Amino acid sequence: MSLARGERVDVIADARLTGADRIDPFGTAAVDVHLTDGRIADIAPVGALPRRGAVLDAGGSWLIPGLWDHHVHTVQWALEAQRVPLRQAESAAHAAAVMGAAPVLGDGRRVGAGFRDALWPDEPDLATLDETTGEVPTYLINADVHSVWLNSAALRREAMPVEGTGLLREGPAFEISRRLNAVDSALADAAVFAALQDAASRGVVGIVDLDMAWNAEAWNRRLAAGFDTTRISFGVYPPHLDRAIAEGLETGDAIDPAGLVRMGPLKIISDGSLGTRTAACSHAYVGAPHNRGVLTVEPAELIELMTRATGGGLACAVHAIGDVAVTHALDAFGLVAAHGTIEHAQLVAHADLPRFARLGVGASVQPEHALDDRDLSDMEWAAQTARAYPLRALADAGANLLFGSDAPVAPLEPWAAMASAVHRTRDGRTAWHPEETLDAATALAASTEGGSHAGSALEPGMTADLVVCEHDPLTATEQQLRAMRIAATMIAGRLTHVG
């Protein structure tokens, strides 16, 4: 039987199971997986039980749990396709020239994204950008989203002083991104629908949406328009914390009868980023003896926010990249008895590694960032004594790892995240800090809803959020992981993608 997107599956026939934590007796033999009411009802040898209802023929492919991305800026990621890519810009002058030749959007602006000025031989300045872009308001968003470079016309349009280099960092940069993301809701929703359908084709069944907006309103609107592609856990930021509490929204609460979209955590950005050289670190950045980054939320305020969130039934997701920020975040989790995650944890002091497990704080990490930043990390964090991108060290210390992309900072591509975690390389380069590589089973589990502690074995009774993929993720090569083909993705047995 040929099945289409939207249909419900009753039997997944001729599939193979994987997972290091399996307790089933089937080994490498193919099985039939029988579903009832959106759950796995039975797993049996091929043909042992009658195949009733809609049958999806896996053809000997591998069946795994559905994949999650635990850190996505959904609208900004979805709009990335309309923005000029700047990842290959080799200098400020090069980026300015690219933007000078870029098309003008319907709202009269040019918008580019993905530059990495920390590796440029020259520095962004207003005159360079004005020379190539003229009077068209032009915006260049850093790959890490913590800085934005504007020309004079854009600064005037945003009612900001036309002075300095035109490079805005942290709070002002986030405000510019928020304004750029505030496009017509029909346009934004169409982009989100398309982007998440593409994610389903990669085996993604759920994301944690951390857009800087009141996301309950947006997701109610999308649900009313028929959105059903992905499970969503949406966060709020401090400006919306009181509203979330007043409306009685607690982490895990569904806003739709099917439970597809649920309330997520309070997101707090407590420091900057490596790319903008603002991550709060214990040692100074190279060549800048007075720059140790910034705490964008002071410890006392962090504790106060987390106390209010915890009292209101919300988990906390604390952005902390530098080791000083990570320490303060862990201190706050311990003091408040909050639950949730530290987002990024890119530089972690040795003494803090075991505190994740001891406090029950998840490590929401993005393995592709380690390879995106390997050269920058070697340069800017050369004097740091904490461990950079310590995936294996965190896992060995008992932390629950939850993988994500931070899209659009990195592409929403769970297989690339797994490949980077397991192999610590891409493009033929030698492995970067190979002592921090993860085993494939941990990487696969970290890419599911429950994280690395939940494992990846399939058992009767589980919700049928499932993916049929070409290769066994536990034995696939780096290239096979990055190019993994997905035959089917389903949520509670309903097909969201058919390849």
Overview of this protein structure:
The protein has about 500 residues and is α/β, with parallel strands linked by helices. Helices cover about 30% and strands about 20% of the residues. The protein is built from 17 helices and 23 strands. The strands form 4 sheets. Strands 1, 2, 3, 4, 5, 21, 22 and 23 form an 8-stranded mixed beta sheet that branches. Helix 8 (about 240-245) links the parallel strand 13 (about 230-235) and strand 14 (about 260-270). Helix 2 runs parallel beside helix 3 (about 125-135) and helix 9 crosses helix 10. The protein is globular, with a radius of gyration of 23 Å.
Q: In brief, what are we looking at here?
A:
The protein is of the alpha/beta class and 499 residues long. It has helices spanning 74-79, 92-100, 126-133, 152-157, 171-181, 185-200, 215-224, 241-246, 299-311, 323-336, 353-359, 367-372, 374-380, 391-396, 414-423, 440-446, 478-482; strands at 11-17, 31-36, 39-45, 55-57, 62-65, 67-72, 84-85, 110-115, 138-142, 147-150, 167-169, 204-209, 231-236, 261-269, 316-320, 340-344, 347-348, 361-365, 387-388, 401-403, 466-469, 486-491, 494-498.
Helix content: 25-40%
Which residue ranges are poorly predicted, with pLDDT under 50 across at least 5 consecutive positions? none
Give the radius of gyration.
23 Å
The general outline is globular
Assembly state of the chains shown? single chain
Gap from first CA to last CA: 14 Å
Number of helices: 17
Percentage beta strand: 15-25%
The average pLDDT score comes to 97
The count of strands amounts to 23
Largest sheet, strands/sense/barrel: 8 strands, mixed
